[in-house]
Amino acid sequence: MIQSVAIQWLIRRVPEFAGIIVTLVTFYNSIPPQYQDLVIRIVSGQGGGLTVSALIGFVLWAYAQVVSYRATVKPQAVVEENGKLVTNTLSPAKEVQVAEAVVNVSSKKTLLDIILGK
Prior knowledge:
- By secondary structure, this protein is mainly alpha-helical.
- It is 72% helix and 3% strand.
- The protein has two domains: 5-73, no CATH class; 78-116.
- A hairpin with a 5-residue loop joins β1 and β2 (85-86).
């Protein structure tokens, strides 16, 4: 089950959700009581026009999560040298070439070399 791309995406979201929750709780606890009441009214739908603007931000964030999830679980395309688009895996010969290239690159260059274009 842990090998599932969807589960891995969800696991990567845990720190994000935890960070958002901790930030919101900390922010809520640090504001004066009259503003805490305002936050409660907004969240409960009694904040007038403020609820709509808060909802827009939440909808945009939720949309970004859906797009991220769909991009994560979508099969990745591979473009071969002849420009042919392949959505499955590489051929065994190409896998060997990629493995050799990775070994050669990783053994000869450092991250700094790559960044500097050496």
